[in-house]
DNA sequence: AAAAAGTTTCATTAATTTTTGAAAGTTTAA
DNA sequence: TTAAACTTTCAAAAATTAATGAAACTTTTT
């Protein structure tokens, strides 16, 4: 396989992965492209490489910047804006995890907490509901905390945890 | 909030969460409904509760069974099929993680490995590409292994890991 | 073996999501 | 202050994904 083919394959794969994870395909593709580009790219560059419109490029770049995983760069003496991706992969994972927690897990936890407070001395059905949603709350809450721990620090989390448990 | 309202809210929330994670809304809603039902439900029950068609119900139930998180049940003396959800939440998480790894992460790893083998003595661009995709392969690979470790066993993984590290 | 009770499939329709492109908006330079 | 260079927005169109429902299929009962 030569470079061009590999590059295109990478962009397609990253895009497909993105859509399976609830991120739109173009957004993931732009991110993939920027990740493997040694230099920051202009909007024109991106449009041309991915064959997408200006509007589409603009909106998805904005989303990527909202996620904190793509940055604007200005080249001295140039008016055009250039874009580059977070280059540290651990940092990338950290930001994605943090953002998904904030946007999805936290709101879900709020709902779960809320609905598990129903008075359940009525029916069997209500008792079971309350038990199940409480259990789910605990689980999701634990998972979220763990995710936070794993991603909050750049340093090795396991080591820290062990030290903490042993002292 | 009384029971009916809470139940409906739970089903909506779980459905929304599903679609953010690449699972179709109805599938997640059926799963939510079965999770909070103390008894197994028939297709009729599900159709009625969620206001969806027979075909839709049938296909999404099949998907849920393919994921291994919903089961068919037969009641003695009854011809109808009943459905129930995996009731252990740890087990549920385990199965989802395993399935997503198999369907999404593993294929991505294969592609990453494949494309990072290009001969990169040509351009700066190709050198950077090779380095980046290799780095990504290592990261995803590590993450997948960790996920496997966390979910492979029902027992507390942390404890085991610590014990292993200390001996 | 035919009817009854139930389930699955899949072409068509509906809903949702994404993309386009042209107009409006900004900023810089002359 | 106005023209040029560039970016953003958003209504409409296109593409994708999900849902319907009727016909086909399966299994059980009589």
Structural description of this entry:
The structure is a homodimer of 167-residue chains. Chain A has 167 residues and is mostly helical. Chain A has 2 domains: 3-85, Winged helix-like DNA-binding domain superfamily/Winged helix DNA-binding domain (Arc Repressor Mutant, subunit A); 89-166. Chain A has helices spanning 3-20, 25-36, 43-50, 54-66, 89-115, 124-152, 157-166; strands at residues 41-42, 70-74, 81-85. Chain A has a 3-stranded antiparallel sheet with strand order 1-3-2. Chain A starts with a helix and ends with a helix. The model of chain A has no long low-confidence stretch (mean pLDDT 90). Chain A binds a DNA duplex (30 and 30 nucleotides) through α4.
Question: Strands, helices and their partners?
Answer:
The structure is a homodimer of 167-residue chains.
Chain A: H1 3-20, H2 25-36, E1 41-42, H3 43-50, H4 54-66, E2 70-74, E3 81-85, H5 89-115, H6 124-152, H7 157-166
Chain A binds a DNA duplex (30 and 30 nucleotides) through helix 4.
Order of helices and strands of chain A: HHEHHEEHHH
Oligomer: homodimer
- Which stretches of chain A are low in confidence, meaning pLDDT under 50 for 5 or more residues running? none
Cα-based radius of gyration of chain A, to the nearest Å = 22 Å
Average of the residue pLDDT scores of chain A: 90
Helix content of chain A: over 70%
Question: What fraction of residues of chain A sit in β-strands?
Answer: 5-15%
């Amino acid at each position: 396989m030569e470079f061009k083919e590999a590059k295109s394959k990478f962009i397609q794969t990253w895009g497909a992965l993105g859509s399976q994870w609830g991120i739109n395909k173009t957004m993931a593709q732009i991110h993939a492209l920027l990740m493997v580009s040694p230099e920051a790219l202009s909007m024109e560059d991106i449009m041309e490489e991915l064959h997408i419109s200006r509007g589409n490029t603009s909106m998805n770049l904005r989303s990527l910047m909202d996620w904190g995983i793509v940055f604007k760069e200005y080249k001295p003496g140039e008016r055009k804006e250039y874009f580059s991706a977070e280059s540290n992969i651990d940092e990338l994972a950290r930001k994605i995890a943090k953002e998904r927690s904030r946007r999805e897990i936290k709101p879900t936890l709020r709902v779960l907490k809320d609905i598990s407070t129903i008075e359940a001395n009525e029916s069997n059905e209500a008792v079971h509901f309350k038990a199940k949603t409480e259990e789910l709350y605990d689980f999701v809450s634990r998972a979220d905390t763990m995710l936070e721990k794993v991603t909050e620090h750049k340093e090795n989390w396991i080591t820290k945890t062990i030290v903490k448990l042993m002292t």
